[in-house]
Design goal:
Blueprint: E1 23-25, E2 32-34, H1 35-41, H2 56-77, E3 81-82, E4 89-90, E5 133-134, E6 137-138, H3 139-146, H4 150-159, H5 170-174, H6 176-182, H7 186-214, H8 221-230, H9 237-277, H10 285-292, H11 297-318
Antiparallel strand pairs: 1-2, 3-4, 5-6
Helix pairs in contact: 3-4, 3-10, 6-7, 6-11, 7-9, 7-11, 9-10
């Protein structure tokens, strides 16, 4: 009785069950419970339905069958759209734009010889109908909040789920702090910024010795590696250890942010949009969504300057 139910509710307290909850399932009907709830009551929360058509596992099978039939019916009735630009097909009902290239299904690219005649309607909703909801928030509101490059992010948000958090974001990989801060995820951005500064400080003693050896020479990468290899005795143990720590602090956060950045941004955007929409003191919701979200070049510049100059300033005071 220790299966982890997926997206289910405890049949006693009706609370949602998460991956890290201690759960049990009824050996008779398979109904999920918190272990504490089960031990408190001493039996299955829907025990009164055992042996009837309302038994938990029987109801779940019936619901799953209905959902499958509904999905099949929806697929049969959905309209297949063929994009006039990339010629790929999609059965996204009521979609205004191609989910692959972003071209409008309702408009055609004018044919002409010059760049001035080229027009490409841009899909800000990532190929989804604007009234589609993601975690209770409409795509239209999310796109207003995300602003710049919303097509890419809305499409990624729709693909991310509780079981599939990962995607890949190159901007988040190459510059974690700058990407997070520019997207106004300030606590996460400052955490990555501190790690980047710590990485640069750890690398500083090794770099100082290395640049002395290099002495302004313009060497190939192979020659640089050979230079280090031939002068290992000039690098003390502490500088080597700190350099190794610096490399870890540099690459591990990049990989984490590159892999989970879109998921973090989805959670952040959904929560911010819900907060704004539920605030009765805000009259102009769309304006506030656009102001609170979108891309901040100021924070991006701050991250760039801090990454470039703060480690050197700190090392001046330490030295």
């Amino acid at each position: 009785m220790s299966e982890k139910p997926d997206n289910k509710q405890c049949q006693i307290c009706q609370g949602y069950l998460f991956d890290d909850d201690d759960t049990v399932v009824c050996p008779v009907c398979g109904a999920p419970h918190h272990r504490d709830c089960w031990q408190t009551v001493g039996h299955c929360g829907v025990e009164h339905n055992h042996g009837t058509d309302e038994q938990y596992d029987i109801l779940q099978k019936a619901k799953a069958k209905e959902a499958k039939e509904a999905e099949q019916k929806a697929n049969e009735n959905s309209t297949v759209n063929t994009c006039s630009y990339c010629h790929r097909t999609s059965n996204a009902e009521n979609a205004e734009f191609c989910p692959y290239c972003g071209h409008s299904y309702n408009k055609h690219i004018p044919q002409g010889n010059g760049y001035a005649n080229f027009q490409m309607p841009f899909d800000v909703y990532g190929g989804l109908p604007k009234d589609t909801t993601i975690d209770g928030v409409t795509v239209k509101d999310l796109a207003t909040f995300v602003g710049s490059n919303s097509s890419r992010y809305i499409h990624r948000f729709s693909q991310i789920s509780k079981r599939k958090k990962g995607s890949w974001n190159w901007a988040a990989f190459f510059f974690p702090s700058g990407w997070c801060l520019s997207r106004k995820m300030l606590p996460l951005g400052f955490m990555y910024l501190i790690l980047a500064i710590a990485s640069a400080i750890c690398m500083y003693p090794f770099s100082e010795i290395y640049y002395e050896l290099l002495d302004g020479q313009n060497l190939s990468y192979a020659a640089q590696y050979a230079l280090i290899e031939n002068n290992l005795n000039k690098f003390d143990l502490l500088s080597m250890i700190l350099a190794f720590i610096g490399v870890i602090l540099n690459f591990v956060p990049r990989i984490i942010c590159g892999r989970l950045g879109d998921w973090h941004y989805r959670c952040f955007a959904v929560n911010k949009v819900k907060t704004i929409l539920n605030d009765p003191d805000i009259e102009d919701k769309p304006t506030e969504l656009a102001r609170s979200g979108n891309l901040s070049l100021l924070w991006l510049i701050i991250a760039l300057l801090a990454t470039q100059f703060v480690p050197g300033i700190i090392m001046m005071f330490i030295s």
